[in-house]
From TrEMBL:
SMART domains, A to Z: ZnF_C2H2 (SM00355)
Record-stated family: Belongs to the krueppel C2H2-type zinc-finger protein family.
C2H2-type domain location: 10-37, 66-93, 94-121, 122-149, 150-172, 177-196
Gene3D superfamilies on file: Classic Zinc Finger
GO cellular component labels: nucleus
Pfam family, one: zf-H2C2_2
Localisation: Nucleus
Molecular function GO terms recorded: DNA-binding transcription factor activity, RNA polymerase II-specific; RNA polymerase II cis-regulatory region sequence-specific DNA binding; zinc ion binding
Name of the protein this chain belongs to: C2H2-type domain-containing protein
Record-linked InterPro entries: C2H2-ZF_domain, Znf_C2H2_sf, Znf_C2H2_type
């Protein structure tokens, strides 16, 4: 099989994601065919495995910060922290054959390689702008609709992307790191370190 290779020959015809096995492709395609899946109450991602609509999913941790022991950077997802740490350790990095740039996941490398190809087959029907990925087009369309589906749980602000909302929500949290020289406080070590 394709366990130790990067080959993902099974492609979803609806969103173009690729998979190593037909089983994973069929499992993924359920996302497109079901009317309603379970939705994380925090990051609003859909999943067919998380049966609780009132609890945050295992991916986002409900806004909990995951801190890198090496550089102090905080991430909103535990999986994101593991992938981030590959940049420090060099473990499991994938390299672009065109420019040599390294990526922590095969998916990121594949997305990057699309930019080298210049292919932008996802076209906005309102302004004609073209995009490399379907996700980029989906985010772009919110410019036209004004849609801001990600609402802050602490104030009335709304955001067009969940990452922007999550970053904003962390500003509501009390600062854990205080500068002894100016009494300014920071919610994460990386911001505090940059200030110093």
């Amino acid at each position: 099989m394709f366990t130790h290779t990067e080959e993902r020959p099974y492609q979803c015809d609806l969103c173009e994601k690729t998979f190593k096995t037909p089983h994973y492709l069929r499992q993924h395609q359920q996302i497109h065919t079901r009317k309603r899946l379970y939705k994380c109450s925090y990051c609003e991602k859909q999943s067919d495995t998380d049966g609780s609509t009132s609890q945050p999913c295992h991916r986002c941790g409900g806004g909990k910060d995951f801190r890198c022991d090496i550089c102090g950077k905080t991430l909103s997802q535990q999986d994101g922290l593991k992938i981030h740490q590959r940049k420090h350790t060099g473990d499991k990095l994938k390299y672009c054959k065109e420019c040599g740039r390294s990526f922590p996941t095969s998916g990121e490398l594949k997305r990057h390689e699309l930019f080298h190809s210049g292919v932008k087959k996802h076209l906005c029907d309102q302004c004609g702008s073209s995009f490399t990925t379907a996700g980029d087009l989906k985010r772009h369309k919110r410019v036209h609709t004004g849609e801001k589906p990600y609402k802050c749980r602490h104030c009335d602000k709304s955001f067009s992307q969940s990452g922007s909302r999550n970053k904003h929500e962390r500003t509501h949290m009390e600062g854990n790191y205080s500068c002894e020289q100016c009494d300014k406080s920071f919610s994460n070590l990386s911001s505090y370190s940059a200030h110093m």
